[in-house]
């Protein structure tokens, strides 16, 4: 064992597109295309990227809600991708997920009490009485009144429903929780409440999170390390603080620059605006997938795909996939001087 | 300078099966030519309904303007007959919506949807004129190969491109006022940056006034001159953008600003929060609507709804303890 809770190794998730008269495979969506990273016990790894970058697919592939088309997902050293049904069920006690939309991810016809007890029932944990008591404790823990037990999801607001989803996901005291855009559907004042709850639960229970979101400010707030994804690949991976203070990939730089900052005195003339749209994952560009929008792109970028490797002159563990990562480093220094 | 738009004590009611719900409870503001007013608030604050009421686009028959006035250059839009309103809508006041896929007609070409406003407001234009104008418009909003795009359908465009088309349609008749209701909320952050800079450029070129409705305080800081903060159907604070962000006066504004995670805050620290949630319109408390969530609430707050008091020449806050709390913070 390497001391990692989860090791994701060169995972691929390619979805076939069938069509035509014979319904043959006519194209492929390269949703996740060779992603590797690891998660240590108790830490939070953030995954950030724009729509279509494969971040949600990655989360679902790790949990094996999709069967990966390549690579390995090692949880405590065992490959989830190769597990049989029974073994998988056993390990899913330790890996849980929180979804984005608390309106759709809770069964509307079940009471909140039943929803929260479901993990116990599925995994045959405890007696009926114990389950009830435990579910009530969980409700209290996530900040809901005990009276919620006999009510239905539609009686609750978005933020409260997300709390119900969180209660369900922590019921079995998992070692890893995949949070897939857990706060993006919530109002600003509710978002901070839920983020605080997640941080608090992690401190108390020591589980690891994979926190997937499109909002870099939110991801940075909860993560120890962050992976930036673009078109199915990780383009940069670094400690949260390093990623923000010294981004090495031109995409990360542009992403940080594009975030509107709640400070009207910010100088907007230095703001980078990326041209064009994200290319389709059905037909990614050759070489570096970001080259079509990159201001540093050269011919080399079209021919040779950059690998995710140690960034030059950076902290240990700071990885970047760019042929010109060193140049960007200089560009940053240049900017700091002026 | 005289304001181009003056909204006075605007009130909107929805008649539902459970009885009338008052969702906009007296909104006042003025908008000057070439300026941008931001309206910020959470879901249910009444910010979108305010804009729909200005456009006279409230769902019928349930949405009713109960009172107040919206005067555009001296004409009260709330008093206009539907046919008269049609001459203003899309012509003098235009609107861009959040979801360009649902706001555009999926079975009509871009050509037809762009041309519509010309056909309606400039009946003398020939089809040739309209085509030239449409191509120019698409070019202006940064759509590559506009001649080709004219005969495409919305689904053939990306989200960012659709929003550009929406903006082009809104700008067709060179309106005095553009109302943008969460125009970038459905877009990715790099595309959002493109659309924000587009709106700002067009505003500068045409001297339009813009009402920008959003829940994102970052966006507000970037594009607005003046901001109104709405809570439970009322304006709770109204300030020039720099003042609002530097020294928010209303406890709700202050709470909102503090609760946003920022790139420069220490990771994994607890965020300040506003406890509880936005109250239901049917169960608003007597007195200040924010009392249940306010850390500074005292007995007097529960007695009567505070007035929107003038703080200085240009700022307003709806809190009886504004002055006192301001001193305390100092």
Largest interface, chains and sizes: A-B, 51 and 47 residues
Which CATH architecture of the domain at 6-88 and 213-259 and 269-337 in chain A? 3-Layer(aba) Sandwich
Write down the overall mean pLDDT of chain A. Answer: 92
How many distinct helices of chain A? Answer: 11
Tally of strands of chain B: 12
CATH architecture of the largest domain in chain B: 3-Layer(aba) Sandwich
CATH class of the domain at 6-88 and 213-259 and 269-337 in chain A: Alpha Beta
The low-pLDDT segments of chain A are none
Q: How much helix, percentage-wise, in residues of chain B?
A: 25-40%
Q: Which H/E pattern describes the elements of chain A?
A: EEEHEEHEHHHEHEHEEHHHEEH
Order of helices and strands of chain B: EEEHEEHEHHHHHEHEHEEHHEEH
Mean pLDDT of chain B: 92
Protein architecture, described:
The complex is a heterodimer of chains A (338) and B (330). Chain A is 33% helix and 22% strand. Chain A is α/β, with parallel strands linked by helices and 338 residues long. In chain A, β11 (309-310) and β12 (319-320) form a beta hairpin. In chain A, α3 packs across α4. The longest helix of chain A has 18 residues, at 188-205. Chain B has 330 residues and is α/β, with parallel strands linked by helices. Chain B contains 12 helices and 12 strands. Chain B has helices at residues 47-54, 82-88, 100-103, 110-121, 127-140, 146-149, 159-171, 189-206, 217-223, 241-246, 251-259, 322-329, and strands at residues 5-16, 19-31, 36-40, 63-72, 75-76, 93-96, 177-181, 209-214, 226-231, 234-240, 309-310, 316-317. An 8-stranded mixed sheet of chain B has the order 6-7-8-3-9-10-12-11, with helices on both faces. In chain B, α5 packs across α7 and α7 (159-171) runs parallel beside α8. The longest helix of chain B has 18 residues, at 189-206. The radius of gyration of chain B is 21 Å and the shape is globular. The two termini of chain B are 34 Å apart. The model of chain B has no long low-confidence stretch (mean pLDDT 92). Classes of the chains: A alpha/beta (338), B alpha/beta (330). At the A-B interface, α6, α7, α8 and α9 of A face α8, α9, α10 and α11 of B.
